[in-house]
């Protein structure tokens, strides 16, 4: 950074540019929010984006194998039929390059780029009570003020690099999957260690193994995964999608996870063992997250869940030839789908390759990273490259790494010291006119994200429109509404098996010191949509709106 870009605390602040709304982040949510506020409400809006391109999460997650687990025809905007008609996905599950192409297409199609400032990282955002404005400062020294501040920072965008002693001394190269170098990483002939077996590691390992001399996978918690059964989309399917977009949208809006398929309305015990096995077999053959929808009670009844879990564990033992590896991979300690279930392309098969090794960290934990590689309690491994597929400081991380300060100097980090507390995942008491798109407390990561994003953006836009039409300048939830919502979020989670995965990132358990609170709203997207609508119909019940 050059001297003229910096601004020390003693330097007088630069003149601020004023906007009606500042949006942080140019991914799916930030771009749609820009479009709605600028083109529908005719507001003066700017998007501040720290990356050098649009795409948000997909701008950074470029690791080999990075692919979405929502089917491509549902992993896109549905607000404009014309956009749906002029974009054609090529594969069942969209890869990261194709998603970036899509989001760039959207940026061009709606002429969003002039209002997006790239390479602009928001450092602080402070609410000025006197002028009722947010004062936003960037690491590059710019200053903005706005009536509304809208965070569109994503849920899984703050990379979690574990604090393993010795990393700084590693003589090779290390990378985190969520901050993947744009030029790629050449694994050819290299000895690679990969830590983490979540959705990311499970996608990444088969690709790394194809070119690396040797890959060692370090597994702490064994994970379920099912085949994605990815492949090119047929001409017939593409035509079906073009002709049925209304129907697909309707299904996505009426299902708990916002996916374009419905849950079967039968219990796992409405059928006999043989029929159940045949249903799972067929779902496994089809592949994808739809497996979870085979029975309605897989995520609410432990015994029902056990039937799915046992089926998948048996599959793992069948696929993996080495019985020791098979045992480590299938020794799963949580209910199926209580952590986000990954879908894969030949993950378990990868362990049949001669150049792939598996280390069970439960039996032999990592002690340190040494200059030559990784040292566990019982062994040493030499690596040229270490890949951290260790996930994210999810949901709250992307918000808390911005210094957000509300009324009376209240820091968001302090307001959320015991865990995130807000109303509908949209607004936090003490932070007027701040909206958090797909914030904690909303269905967000438990859904097909674009569906959740469109609902949030539409709700926020309607709220701002309402305020302007009624001469209102400030909106903020009342404390009692936030208290009640927090209880509702916990009750929704407790009605499922989700909290039984004690070490999941849904609970913040993957980041040392993070409060253990189940963060997303698990009551289902359709139910959440109804609740948000009711709040509007009751005159923004739970919010205080003032002139
Ligand atoms: P993750 O689910 O949090 O998995 C991180 C992995 O790293 C876990 O296996 C974890 O073990 C391990 N780990 C973390 N810290 C460790 C340490 N200090 N030592 C050893 N192991 C450690 O992260 P992710 O795989 O990046 O996935 C995050 C989410 O992103 C997914 O759940 C999904 O929502 C989304 N995602 C989606 C897709 C897709 O659409 N297909 C792809 C990638 C990611 P423990 O389990 O023991 O903590």
Give the structure's gist in a few sentences.
By secondary structure, the chain is α/β, with parallel strands linked by helices. Helices cover 31% and strands 16% of the residues.
Question: SSE layout and pairings?
Answer:
Layout: E1 17-24, H1 28-40, E2 45-48, H2 57-60, H3 81-85, H4 96-109, E3 116-117, E4 122-128, E5 133-138, E6 143-151, E7 173-176, E8 191-195, H5 199-211, E9 214-219, E10 226-227, H6 235-243, H7 245-254, H8 273-286, H9 302-319, H10 323-330, E11 343-344, H11 347-350, E12 356-360, E13 366-370, E14 373-376, E15 380-382, E16 385-388, H12 397-400, E17 403-405, H13 412-415, E18 434-436, H14 449-469, E19 474-477, H15 479-494, H16 525-537, E20 543-546
The site of NADP nicotinamide-adenine-dinucleotide phosphate has 27 residues, from helix 5.
Low-confidence spans: 1-12
Mean model confidence by pLDDT: 96
N/C terminus separation: 42 Å
CATH class of the largest domain: Alpha Beta
Largest sheet: 8 strands, mixed
* Strand percentage: 15-25%
Ligand inventory reads:
NADP nicotinamide-adenine-dinucleotide phosphate
The radius of gyration is 24 Å
And the CATH topology of the largest domain? FAD/NAD(P)-binding domain
CATH architecture of the largest domain: 3-Layer(bba) Sandwich
């Amino acid at each position: 950074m050059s001297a003229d870009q910096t601004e020390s605390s003693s330097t007088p602040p630069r003149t601020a540019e004023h906007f009606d709304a500042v949006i942080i982040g140019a991914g799916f949510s930030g771009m749609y929010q820009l479009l709605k506020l600028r083109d529908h409400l005719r507001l003066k809006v700017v998007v501040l984006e720290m990356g050098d391109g649009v795409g948000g999460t997909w701008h950074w997650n470029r690791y080999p194998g990075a692919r979405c687990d929502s089917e491509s025809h549902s992993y896109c905007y549905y607000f404009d039929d014309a956009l749906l008609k002029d974009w054609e996905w090529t594969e069942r599950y969209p890869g990261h390059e194709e998603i970036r192409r899509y989001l760039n297409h959207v940026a061009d199609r709606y002429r969003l780029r002039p209002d997006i400032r790239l390479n602009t990282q928001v450092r602080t955002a402070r609410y000025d009570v006197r002028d009722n404005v947010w004062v936003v400062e960037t690491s590059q020294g710019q200053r903005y003020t706005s009536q509304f501040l809208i965070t569109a920072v994503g849920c899984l965008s703050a990379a979690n690099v574990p604090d393993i002693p010795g990393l700084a001394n590693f003589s090779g190269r290390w990378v985190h999957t969520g901050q993947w170098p744009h030029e790629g990483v050449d694994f050819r002939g290299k000895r690679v260690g990969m830590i983490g077996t979540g959705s990311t590691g499970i996608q990444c390992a088969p690709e790394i193994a194809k070119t690396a001399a040797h890959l060692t996978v370090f597994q702490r918690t064994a994970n379920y995964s099912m085949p994605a059964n990815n492949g090119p989309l047929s001409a017939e399917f593409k035509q079906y999608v073009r002709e049925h977009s209304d129907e697909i949208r309707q299904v996505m809006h009426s299902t708990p996870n916002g996916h374009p398929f419905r849950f079967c309305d039968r219990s796992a015990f409405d059928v006999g063992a043989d029929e159940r096995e045949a249903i799972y077999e067929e779902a496994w053959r089809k592949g994808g997250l739809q497996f979870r929808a085979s029975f309605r009670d897989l995520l609410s009844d432990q015994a029902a869940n056990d039937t799915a879990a046992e089926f998948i564990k048996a599959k793992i033992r069948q696929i993996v030839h080495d019985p020791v590896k098979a045992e480590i991979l299938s020794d799963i300690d949580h209910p199926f789908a209580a952590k986000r279930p990954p879908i894969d392309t030949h993950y378990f098969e990868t362990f049949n390759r001669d150049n792939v090794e598996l280390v069970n960290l439960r039996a032999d934990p990592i002690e340190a990273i040494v200059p030559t590689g990784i040292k566990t309690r019982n062994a040493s491994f030499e690596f040229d490259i270490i890949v951290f597929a260790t996930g994210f400081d999810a949901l709250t991380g992307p918000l808390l790494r911005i210094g957000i300060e509300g009324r009376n100097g209240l820091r968001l980090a302090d307001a959320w010291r015991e865990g995130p507390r807000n109303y509908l995942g949209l607004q936090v008491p003490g932070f007027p006119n701040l909206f958090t798109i797909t914030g904690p407390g909303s269905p967000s990561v438990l859904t097909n994200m674009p569906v959740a994003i469109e609902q949030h953006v539409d709700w926020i836009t309607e709220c701002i429109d309402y305020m302007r039409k009624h001469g209102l300048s400030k909106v903020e939830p009342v404390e009692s509404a936030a208290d009640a919502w927090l209880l509702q979020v916990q009750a929704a989670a407790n009605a499922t098996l989700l909290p039984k995965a004690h070490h999941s990132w849904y609970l913040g358990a993957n980041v040392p010191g993070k409060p253990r609170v189940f963060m997303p709203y698990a009551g289902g997207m359709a139910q959440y949509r109804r609740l948000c609508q009711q709040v509007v119909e009751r005159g923004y019940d739970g919010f205080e709106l003032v002139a």
